[in-house]
Write a structure and sequence with these properties.
The structure is a homodimer.
Chain A: H1 18-36, E1 38-40, H2 41-48, H3 52-64, E2 68-70, E3 85-88, E4 92-99, E5 103-110, E6 115-122, H4 129-145, E7 152-160, E8 163-165, E9 170-172, H5 184-192, E10 196-200, H6 201-212, E11 221-226, E12 231-237, E13 240-241, H7 272-275, H8 278-284, H9 292-301, H10 305-329, E14 333-338, H11 339-346, H12 348-358, H13 361-364, E15 368-371, H14 378-393
Parallel strand pairs in A: 4-7, 7-10, 11-14, 14-15
Antiparallel strand pairs in A: 1-3, 2-3, 4-5, 5-6, 8-9, 11-12, 12-13
Helix pairs in contact in A: 1-3, 2-3, 4-5, 6-14, 9-11, 10-11, 10-12
Chain A binds a DNA duplex through helix 1, helix 2 and helix 3.
Amino acid sequence: MNEIALPTLRANRVGSSREDLRIHNLSLVLSLVHKNVSLSRSDLAAQTRLNRSTVSDLVAELSERGLLLETERPQATGVGRPSHMVSVNNRVVAFAVEITTYAVRVAAVGLAGKVIDRRRAVTGLLPSPSRVVEIIAELVASIRSGLDKNSLIAGIGVSIPGQVNEQTGTLRMVTMLGWGEVELASMISAKTGLPVSLGNDGTISCVAERDFGAGRGFNDIVYIFGGAGGIGGGVIVGGQMLRGTAGFAGELGHMRISDSKIEDSAGLPGTLEALVKREDLLDALHLDDADDDELTRAILKSKSLRVRKLIERQIDLLGIAIANCVNIFNPEVVLLAGFLSSLFDADDYRLLAKARAGGLAGARERVVVRKAELGANLVLVGAAEIAFAGLLADPAGFKLRSPKSIK
Amino acid sequence: MNEIALPTLRANRVGSSREDLRIHNLSLVLSLVHKNVSLSRSDLAAQTRLNRSTVSDLVAELSERGLLLETERPQATGVGRPSHMVSVNNRVVAFAVEITTYAVRVAAVGLAGKVIDRRRAVTGLLPSPSRVVEIIAELVASIRSGLDKNSLIAGIGVSIPGQVNEQTGTLRMVTMLGWGEVELASMISAKTGLPVSLGNDGTISCVAERDFGAGRGFNDIVYIFGGAGGIGGGVIVGGQMLRGTAGFAGELGHMRISDSKIEDSAGLPGTLEALVKREDLLDALHLDDADDDELTRAILKSKSLRVRKLIERQIDLLGIAIANCVNIFNPEVVLLAGFLSSLFDADDYRLLAKARAGGLAGARERVVVRKAELGANLVLVGAAEIAFAGLLADPAGFKLRSPKSIK
DNA sequence: TCTATTTGTTGTCTAGGGCAACATAATGCA
DNA sequence: TGCATTATGTTGCCCTAGACAACAAATAGA
């Protein structure tokens, strides 16, 4: 029904001129097609409530700029003249980068959300920032050289397993990598000649879920992700990513919920991340390593009382955290990803009961708790999304690059 | 329900036409003058980045509608032709209603933020909703009859010490009054013939602080209020009130931060509200009743070890809650109101240290913790703000009423 | 008094969305 | 098969609202 994450125009406090109007409407149309991959022009007119002729004009401009494609032969859906389908041009691409503890993944992702090419390189343990930047630049260059000549490059979006100042493109405290303050965005930009956007991995995954996953159609989402390194999160408020002043918002894993002295990865005691750990589950199940599906299966199969107790404890704690989020954000949906979805599968009834018990009457009623949808490509798609953000916000003003023009 | 403060244009997902443009710019100008009480036309042009002639035109339309006033004799500020001052017309009024446990306050508040008239009636303990509505209607009517004939009435804004569905104007769970689900907005509207907006008291106070108090100039605010009935809160994200799906968001007091079994007013254990209580302070200080200033003085004067310990415990818990908020919202400022500001005064150093200790590196750095500013009129001003919201959002389309036309 | 500076005012220009009329392409029924 | 119906695309014109430029007005300072 409602479309989400549509472009908020510029939610700033300056006056708007006719140009802003045009930018907004172009942005709106492009964003709508982007989210739905393909739409008819009449759908666009209906959803935007703009005049047919206006939509035609907007679509024409976006097509001219190479952002949209119109099908020649429209297929009929019912009575009346069939409408042309408009789809996003997947030749408009962004480079999505995922930095993890010991590897880097880079992908070219089309505006239609399709992964066009993907490479991966192992960085080794605790690599230096400049080494990682080098590897990223190499991977980007090699993918770039293989792109279609007509491609248009929007930029690079990078997912970071730690804190990021999104305003300045600076890293802070990536404990998993042992990095302190690093000017990552400008470093990557210098080596590639492309604009770079950074984002926290939780935030980025949340965006991906909103646009293409279990969060579609929702405007108020709490997303909690459990990975090997800890628990991250992201929050969508009124269709918009919650960023905070510097982009540090959404650290749901470091929410303190207990008097326990056990510390999380950031050294904070009694937090959700400190108490609900993937490792503990693996230990109890005598698993060395497992992906989330294997973990879920192992949990469901296990007859061990110890495992049972552990899971109940973790579920109860997760329930408390969810309740806190519900009281604070009054969201439409809470999405659980990573091993937290294994906990959901283990005993969703208990989890929901616990979450409800801690929520206030009003807020908890309509809340839906769900598993996230997107799998391995999640972060890459999300990273591409933040790279596309500028283009989507101002389709006419955003400068796209060719695959050839290096630097 | 509606937005207050600066009008973020319509952050909606439909296309914009020229009319929307006009609405936005009118809204912007009116909101700016409203926030600053008085501004010169050149200031307006500078701040909105609109053309001088456009600002003139907008101001002229708003003046014609009786919303703004222009001074005849501009006073010079420097070189150049002096600019006309534009101020908000305080004859445009809203009725602000504050419902508390045993009394109702109603005020007429001008668009300039001045309280024009104010009445109060004691309701007795646990009055029925319809009784309270009756009292409100009477107070509104009596104030209304005394208003200047040229007044323009925007509507009624009501502050509720409990949960409110702002979308539907329905109350839920006002434990302090023993009320369940009540269609309060339509009840009041039926008796007064005026549009009614409801808001949670925490939310409303937060809005008032943002617009006229310690939150001026900030876009990301966490507000925590400690009253006799418990702890409420409000959050401003990117200049906008955090509302959630149904308007239940911002219940910071019910955030669970401990394993303690002590329950808060909603029956939730281990929450901030359960553990940090005004009552406990009064008890320890052997005070029967005291306002916040008296409380602060008593705290600072007290030499009792028991009091000292209690305060330290409360401060530490409040610090944890603040840290959680900082990690979740990455705000620019955290405002403490009510008896929480007494705790701040008691030992701000300890409180800040505790809050910092629980915050993540990035988010905690620039956070400022402050006492809220506005006093007794806070809630009334805030309630008026939510009544003005519709007018500020669409100055040309909003229907104002005369004092005479009853019903 | 004259100049520089800033602001207000007026008339004109123009971009861009609305609208109506018409063209087009499908369905459905006689 | 032909014609009515319906939904969509296209075209030309209109209108509004903001920009802009030129000029007037009001101040300070020399």
